[in-house]
Design a protein that fits this description.
Strand order of the largest sheet: 6-7-8-3-9-10
Shape: globular
Largest sheet: 6 strands, mixed
Number of strands: 10
Number of helices: 10
Structural class: alpha/beta
């Protein structure tokens, strides 16, 4: 049996009378790329929110490595090595790209308020280290030359890359990306797919991506989970899953 970095077991999320996720089980192997696909309203983002701690599941269990994280806060999960991006961009347009990445590295600032206020040596060293880490992440995603430009002046695709840089700067073990190619053209999507493969190789992390672009899914995902109406209708190796008649009927062939 494949060793799982993340294991979701019989997870359900209910909002009042709406069952957004129903008895979902999935396994994310270490150093892999997996995709979660399905039509709008299938429960994909709800599942992401449950995994990252943004919402509490109604039932079920989530394990990350050897730890049961079902009841952990989002911050605690972040400290364990889980990072994510969101479907909607969450950058501060007036700040530079490097400052936006640095904001995400705030949890590494352990110098204390007084030290920071008076710019004591330890604080200065920490600030330099954090900004160096931010710049390395931006360079990795191809934005070294844009590091000092305001985020609001960057193209949509480059702003997406800033968000990814902010996530990988945390050196996560698990990176969850919610529709990262949304709004991108074919060439940008192709470059993004290559970046995901490079991230898993360089950082040794697993990536789980919610994605509508099936070309992207086929290009990068080793494993795929298909949701429909909050339930798993197929899961496993991507080539097998995307050839599943149930998937073709319920999603890929429906035009949704």
């Amino acid at each position: 049996m494949t060793e799982g970095l993340l294991t979701v077991t019989e997870l359900s999320v209910r909002f009042g009378g709406l069952l957004a996720n129903n008895d979902i089980s999935m396994l994310v192997p270490a150093q892999s790329i997996s995709a979660i696909v399905g039509p709008n309203g299938a429960g994909k983002t709800t599942l992401f929110n449950a995994i990252t701690g943004a919402i509490r599941p109604t039932s079920g269990r989530i394990d990350f490595g050897d730890a049961d994280i079902t009841s952990m806060s989002a911050a605690a999960r972040g400290r364990l090595g889980i990072a994510r991006t969101f479907q909607n961009l969450s950058l501060v347009d007036d700040l530079s790209a490097v400052d936006n990445v640095t904001i995400g590295l705030g949890r590494f600032r352990h110098t204390g308020v007084l030290s920071s206020m008076f710019s004591l040596p330890r604080s200065l060293r920490t600030d330099r280290s954090v900004r160096d880490t931010a710049r390395r992440a931006l360079a990795f995603v191809g934005l070294a030359a844009a590091a000092d430009r305001p985020a609001g002046h960057l193209s949509y695709g480059d702003r997406r890359r800033v968000e990814i840089a902010r996530a990988i700067a945390l050196a996560p073990s698990l990176l969850l990306l919610d529709e990262p190619s949304a709004g991108m053209g074919p060439s940008e999507t192709d470059e993004l797919a290559k970046l995901f493969v490079a991230i898993t190789r360089e950082y040794g992390c697993s990536i789980v991506v919610v994605e509508h672009d099936m070309t992207m899914v086929r290009a990068v995902a080793e494993f795929t989970v298909v949701l429909d109406h909050g339930e798993v209708i197929s899961s496993g190796e991507t080539t097998t899953v995307l050839a599943d008649p149930a998937v073709t009927t319920a999603y890929l062939g429906s035009g949704r």
